[in-house]
Amino acid sequence: MKFQKSPGTQDILPGSVEKWQFIEDKARDICRRFNFREIRTPIFESTDLFRRGVGETTDIVEKEMYTFIDRGDRSLTLRPEGTAGVVRSYVENKLFGDPEVSKLFYVGPMFRYERAQAGRYRQFHQFGIEAIGSVEPALDAEVIALGYTFFTEIGLKGVGVEINSVGTPAVRAAFREKLLAFLEPKREILCKDCQSRIDRNPLRVLDCKVDQQHFTDAPSILDSLDEECSIHFEKVKQSLTDMEIPFTINHRLVRGLDYYTHTAFEYKAEGIGAIDTIGGGGRYNGLVSDIGGPEQPGVGLGLGLERAVLLLEHQQTELPNLNEIDVYIVALGEAADREATKLVHQLRRQGIRAERDYQGRKMKAQLKSADRLGARFTAILGDDEIARGEIALKDMSKGEQRMVAFTAIAQEIKG
């Protein structure tokens, strides 16, 4: 029987995985600078957590979750997004007792049963942040700025930020009536998903990717904002302007999750087929209490790493060579082979990326291997070198070779 990976999944192989390591390391470095700390939550949670946290009428809950019954007759779901699990952990572990804002980040796999296409997989990976404990609009702007900083620092070009305010539940209730009056005459020409959403959650109709041409004249929720929401949104825009984060206002942006309040935002970039959204997020002031915690406001984002990798490839972004090794030990003879084993291990313990031959190849083949691996140095070791306690060290970029004592090899390589 021939086994293959499941539809909607991928093998990330050597040669590609280094791109992932680069962007994950960049995410962690940026979070450190923004004072976000890493949190790791379970891959699966109670199904009810996502029903309550994400929303019963969202596509995620209705169509896309991987749900199963375990041997204890419990309904569990592989996490389809990161926020609900982080907020559950925040409540369960009483992180709200900390007087500071809880600034958390995560990197890991998520699971949704979606139609596989470029940039969209059934197992995908997200980098996300959550900042819980403040209503300050400046915190919304900081979260948006962190995501924008991430995309620019990994080298992506042409990334745009779109923002909107989705108000409070009271604001949305008033806007709902205006929107229904606009949508009802169009019901029959809209897709089946939109027809269903009109009755259950009409704001989600505006999130449809199929029927956007019918919403050109749709009312704007910005016209329904109360004074509090308007002030909040203006301060977010002012903070972004102060930080020189470019943005545009998209009054139809509502995002696909039910927990957002006030600020909603997305990052856009072209180059991965029909999909142009590469991440997004927003404020969720009622989510913590919905999941059983105290009234604590929060704001966060989630960025798709698959889409970031695809864009890096599409834009042919030059990345650091993460495969390059420091030195390749070429051993000639049995005694040199034993010495190479010891020497490679000593160099590795001193923080040097070292490699050697394990196939009994001749010197020419070993040198070719060193070249393929991008070795900065090659070190040739034979009986004569062992007798003198020296090794022939060649700087591959300069083409210079000199004899170096065994005890000085690490220092020479490190420069």
Walk me through what this model shows.
The chain has helices spanning 17-33, 47-54, 59-64, 83-92, 137-153, 169-183, 192-200, 227-242, 287-290, 305-314, 334-349, 363-372, 383-388, 409-414; strands spanning 37-38, 44-46, 67-69, 75-78, 102-111, 123-132, 160-165, 248-249, 261-272, 275-283, 298-304, 327-331, 354-356, 377-381, 390-395, 400-405. It folds into two domains: 17-167 and 225-314, BirA Bifunctional Protein, domain 2; 327-414, Anticodon-binding domain (Rossmann fold), CATH 3.40.50. It has an eight-stranded mixed beta sheet, with helices on both faces. The two termini are 53 Å apart. It has 415 residues and is α+β, with helices and mostly antiparallel strands. Helix 1 (17-33) runs antiparallel to helix 5, helix 2 packs across helix 4 and helix 5 packs parallel to helix 8. The longest helix has 17 residues, at 17-33. Helix 11 links the parallel strand 12 (327-331) and strand 13. It is elongated. It is built from 14 helices and 16 strands.
Quick tags:
eight-stranded mixed beta sheet; elongated; 2 domains; Rossmann fold; 16 strands; five-stranded mixed beta sheet; 415 residues; single chain; BirA Bifunctional Protein, domain 2
Secondary-structure map:
Blueprint lengths: L16 H17 L3 E2 L5 E3 H8 L4 H6 L2 E3 L5 E4 L4 H10 L9 E10 L11 E10 L4 H17 L6 E6 L3 H15 L8 H9 L26 H16 L5 E2 L11 E12 L2 E9 L3 H4 L7 E7 H10 L12 E5 L2 H16 L4 E3 L6 H10 L4 E5 L1 H6 L1 E6 L4 E6 L3 H6 L1
Parallel strand pairs: 1-5, 7-8, 12-13, 12-14
Antiparallel strand pairs: 2-4, 3-4, 5-6, 6-11, 7-9, 9-10, 10-11, 14-15, 15-16
Helix pairs in contact: 1-5, 2-4, 5-8
